[in-house]
Description:
Radius of gyration: 21 Å
Strand content: under 5%
Amino acid sequence: MAKDIEGGRHGDKALKDYYDPPPAPLVDPEELASWSFYRAIIAEFVATLLFLYVTVLTVIGYKNQSDPYHHGNECNGVGILGIAWAFGGMIFILVYCTAGISGGHINPAVTFGLFLARKVSLVRAVMYMAAQCGGAICGCALVKLFQDIYYVRYGGGANELAPGYSIGTGLAAEIIGTFVLVYTVFSATDPKRNARDSHVPVLAPLPIGFAVFMVHLATIPITGTGINPARSLGAAVIYNQPQAWSDHWVFWAGPFIGATIAAFYYQFILRAGAVKALGSFKSSSHM
């Protein structure tokens, strides 16, 4: 079992049995000249495209199979459980495939949370978000291309507040759901956690995918589950009906607020970032 000996000293350097990458610069000119930077952007675009294609197609297929006006019933199709599995399973697959290339964000809220924690630069964060939104739009466009008859009839997979729920409830559901996701991302990718629990072989994409699955089970009846602004934007752009845009801001504000809270909680409370910064300030002031 790996031991946390971060507090030990050898000379002037803290001894660690893990490597914590240095904070990413706000702007890194060198990455703009690197092919790996653009390869990561392409990976985020393609991953988000595939994510929206499979998941929105699953949603529309279920609504068609369960439509009583077309000889369907609620027992047909994959059901809400199957939809949740589609979202969680695709995140597991795509994070596994792209983690070594781009980090496997596939979600502007995840990218924003990692940017706040200084895991990625501002330029990379902006380009990732643009690629994710572009990929989501293209993924939904493919669904409409293949399911043109059913796409508009069954709502295009767009996120909307369910009848009987207030905007406040929908916003809270998005905030809490995104908090669960981004908190899981930080925990699953924490080098200190991986070193300490090296005896427990956990594949990082697995808990992230399960987090998406569980959040969908809880919030599909409320908002259809956004927790991913690119997913909500892509479906709204291609569906392009008033009901998809009326409360669209909720699916941006909620995830970004949830990601902000998760980043602050993990970095400054669980990882004691604020205490370390204060200790460093006190040490330098006594020199």
